[in-house]
Amino acid sequence: MQKFLSGLDKLILISAAALPFFMAVAPGPMNVFAALLIISFLLKKIIKHERLFFPGLLGLSLIMFFLVTCLSIIHSLKFIDTLKGGIFRLFTYILVFLAMAHEAKDKRFLKWIIISSGCGLALVSIDGIWQVATGKDFIRGYEPVLNIGLARATASFKDSNVMGIYLSALSPLGLGLSLYYFKGKNKMIMAALSILSLIGVVLTYSRPTLLAVYIALLFLAIVKKDKLIIGGLVLVTLISPFAMPRSVKDWARGLEYNPLRIMCNDDRIAIYRNTLRMIKAHPIIGVGANTFMKNYRFYKEYPEYRNVVTIDYIYAHNNFLHMAGELGLAGLSLFLWFVYLLFKRGLAIHKRLKDGFSKTLSLSLLACIIAFLVNGLTESSLYYSRVAVLFWYIAGLVLALDKFQTRGEYRSTASTAGLEGVLDDAK
After folding, report:
1. Any bridge partners for residue 151, and if so which?
2. How far apart are CA 100 and CA 41, in angstroms?
3. I want to staple 312 with a disulfide (CB 3.0 to 4.6 A). Which of 20, 297, 386, 406 is the partner?
4. What is the C-alpha to C-alpha distance for residues 228 and 410, in angstroms, rounded to an integer?
5. What's the whole-number mean pLDDT along residues 13-33?
């Protein structure tokens, strides 16, 4: 039995490490590794008779959120869609969250997570650069998206904004470690990776992605009291309106420099207004998990905002409105409660950690969560099957670092010892 459990540990490590990298390649292998992670994790818990959920309010908030998702089936237009794409999908995401929180427990595990995430960032960014330069990405043959005269990179993703969600959710990891932990050669490697990922972010021309990375970096700088980075961000804010391409300036002028219209576009604002009508009609438990797109056409106002005509089958392009539409204000409130408790626990873990590496890593992971949520202000990123699991994956890692508080496994001199030395296997 011990050999079998050891084999499960290895499979969990391989699956968890492979997930962020293969997310950059295609949904097929990503889903395979997610399934292997979940199955291995559940088998291990069953054999060892260990509990799944965290005790206390954090676990309670997650259980209640899942129960409201189940209850939303009452208003569902199609029960099978709510069961399969709503309840079951959320259950798998929660299991990924729990697997990462329970199983990321040594240096070896974290080493492979960081390497895999870095390779995924590099792959997507290089692919995006290649796509814009040649007209096709080298992984799946996708062409760049053309908007207002700009070639927007998508890499192996079908949309520039989805590529942006992936990059913005993982790039704070490299930014935090390169700025506030690594030294020498390691710092140069991680800084090069961070710059490469920022180039990828810029090539998406996704406003929410740029804002997400900006706020994540600002969060890191404020917590670390880094006046140089804060000043640099202020300078970027002042210069960026003048450094934009001519087509972007003309487009902004056409929107009367209205910040809401620039960030969201008129079509998104129209969708938000229609979504509010949906929420008003079903304020408690919503229209049913995974049925927003099927219900949307029934709540369109006529004429729509600024005479925009939105299609009948569409995402809300806002995580929180999308969630309120499907799960009602009850579901949204419970999710926000979970996020609040997650950040409260994450900040408490960060405060108690003494080792420089684990302390910086915990802060960087919180910045990743912030970037994902900020991007979700204009995207339904929690509902895009290609990238939604990233939120739960990173959230699990935030809690996993609680196990490193008293172990003293990271040496303070590791920052000059090379990446392998920094994340050496525990002896």
Report:
1. 146
2. 9
3. 297
4. 28
5. 96
Give the chain's domain count. 1
Q: How far apart are CA 376 and CA 379, in angstroms?
A: 5
Q: What's the maximum distance between 2 C-alpha atoms anywhere in the chain? A: 68
Helix then strand count (H, E) for the chain reads 17, 2
Residue 323: its H or E element: helix 319-352
- Dist CA 8 CA 29 (whole Å): 19
Helices 107-134 and 184-204: crossing angle in degrees, nearest 10, is 40
pLDDT band at 405 (very low <50, low <70, confident <90, very high): low
Burial class (CB in 10 A: 0-12, 13-18, 19+), 235: exposed
The per-residue pLDDT for 417 is: 41
What single DSSP character describes residue 73?
G
Q: Reduce the DSSP state of residue 409 to 3 states and report it.
A: coil
Listed in sequence order, the DSSP H helices in 181-258 are: 184-204, 207-224, 227-243, 246-254
Decide if 35 is inside a domain. no
This prediction has a pTM of 0.93
Residue 352 contacts by C-beta under 8 Å, 6 or more apart in sequence? 405
Whether 133 shows a pLDDT value over 80: the answer reads yes
């950690």: which residue's tokens? 353
Q: Residue 150: in which H helix or E strand, if any? A: strand 150-152
For 44-58, 153-167, 178-192, 318-332, which range has the lowest pLDDT when averaged over its residues?
44-58
Could you give the CA distance from residue 221 to residue 229 in angstroms, rounded to a whole number? 6
Query: 204 exposed, middle or buried (CB, 10 Å; 0-12, 13-18, 19+)?
Result: buried
Single-letter code of the amino acid located at 362: S
- Domain membership flag for residue 49: no
Is 241 inside a domain boundary?
yes
Residue 67 belongs to a domain: yes
User: Residue 425 gets which letter from DSSP?
Assistant: P
Domain assignment of residue 64, given as a range: 54-422
Per-residue tokens: 357:
């590496």
CA–CA dist 5, 11 (Å, integer): 10
**Do you find a cis peptide bond into 303, omega within 30 degrees of 0?**
yes
Sorted by sequence, the CB contacts under 8 Å of residue 328 that are 6+ apart come out as: 68, 72, 279, 282, 283, 284, 285, 286
Quote the DSSP letter at residue 83. Answer: I
SS percent in the chain: helix, strand, coil, step 5: 75, 0, 25
Span 187-239, pLDDT tens digits: 999 999 999 999 999 999 999 999 999 999 999 999 999 999 999 999 999 99
Q: Write phi, then psi, for 145 (nearest 5 degrees).
A: -85, 135
